[in-house]
Amino acid sequence: MSVAVEIAVEDLAGLEVAAQAGADRVELCTDLSRGGLTPSPDLVEQCARRAAALVAARDAKPRFDVHVLIRSRAERGDFLDHPQEFAYSTEEIALMARQAAESVGAGAAGVVLGALTPSGELDLPAIETIRDGALGAGSDALRGVTLTVHRALDAMATRADRVEAMRTLLGLGIHRVLSSGGAARALDGAEDLAAMVEASEDLMDVCAGGGVRPADVVDLVRRTGVGDLHLSASRRAGAPVEADAPETRTDPAIVAAAVDAAGEL
To answer: How far apart are CA 248 and CA 234, in angstroms?
Structure first.
């Protein structure tokens, strides 16, 4: 079984660490401590160019690339049971559509998006608007764009809601869903993730993310059937730092450990 490892990074140094430690891709964002916000087009362009250079130099996997989080606002780090964290105004939706287009135009291979109504249902018009911003830019650049829906689904009330959302997102052309199965840690949401994998009918990837540690990887994949894993691989507070280590929160040892664990499957 092939399991892809995605690392959430905030900067160019984090991307380099993830690539050289064997990750399959990065999700680029800012303000990870609150769940992430959209990075600037300049940072996206720098990271996309560097990713291509690392691939060309064989310092990254052949298909290593950059996906960009599209999220205009983050008011709290804990969004479980708080769908309003992903409920956006008309102006915010228009902004995120522009951000999606700008990110793809700057070289992103994919975008990570999502929106809910205040009551916790998928906001389909908002998702379609942001999706179309990304796809329009991809069309202009004559290339495809991978569409991922982020952990907004984890703010939904029940497993049944997440499963139904999977079926709906299939019809919108979404390629991947990132989820913890509605739990603080993906391992604790394993039953929901397994139900989401089943609902995908092998037509959409399910990426398990949320408190994932390298030690969890084998058990998590075997219990859920997910083909993708997402983690920030953040260096622990107070952990020793090598003298020549890059200035980034991304820890190469954690990335490498997750990649090695995924390679055992």
So the answer is: 9
